[in-house]
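Hi, here's the filled form for the chain we discussed.

Project: internal
Contact: R.S.
Residues: 317
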Amino acid sequence: MKAVVLSSGQVRFESAYPVPQAAGEVLIRVLCAGICETDLQLMRGYMGFEGVLGHEFVGIAESGRYAGQRVVGEINCSCGDCSTCRAGLPTHCPHRSVLGILARDGAFAEYVRLPEANLHPVPDSLETHEAVFVEPVAAAFQIPAQLTISSDQRVIVLGDGRLGNLCAQALRLHTADVTVIGKHSRKLAVLERMGFRTMLLAEAAPDRSADLVVDCTGSPTGITTALQFVRPRGTIVLKTTVAGEQTLSLAPLVIDEITLVGSRCGPFEPAIRALARKEIEVAPLIESIRPLEEGAEALADAGRMPTLKTLLAVAAG
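And the returned structure, exactly as it came back:
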């Protein structure tokens, strides 16, 4: 099968990569997949991953209860037997594999496999190109799943890219006071057209008044910047994951009694509902749709230029 493969720090397109063996899981014919910041960090050495990249996708199930239907898939594949899984925390299973990120080939390929329990059917009202966003929208929805956000809270989202945009939209469902601070006027303009208040980071004066700051910068300095905007006893949500080590003085967290919340994958069902109801707008984020054969070049371009969302068209369906 055709696939985009990361090996020894290099990404290449392969035309004869082995089709995954289902082994009790569901084989899925991929229709479309999305390039994510995590893919770019994996290329820089994050997690030490090698294999087929890609974890945001829509495909058609080849077997099981959803056979013949469009599906999206949760990316964490847990063992189901350990104490962590039995405690209801399968996304933190110490034995898990993670689609296109850890010990499991991903979705930048003609076929991918996942446990049936990970799959969610895509409603007919949701276009395939929109449904690709279910996984990152779910990640954005993880923030209100972890925290109680009241309508009077002041929220700042750091980062004007794909995830920052989606997090801002998810948080606006809970409070109207959401400001996005970023480095790219063109990306901020997209958010402004959505009705958000925005600021260029170079022009933003930190006043340490935000109740909640969400770091979606994709930069090792994001949390340092967040500390400049969050109020004493406020909360920072960390969405950024980067390759390499990060250094940070923890004294401000202690002195100002800041709550730091790590936030990763989130709930798929509310994300699907929100997309189907048009509560989350994703079409303005799609900047290009390229064939899978151009996947390596598309990833390189995404790493060089401040683009929003690039999708890879894999198959018709």
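Let me know if anything looks off before we file it.
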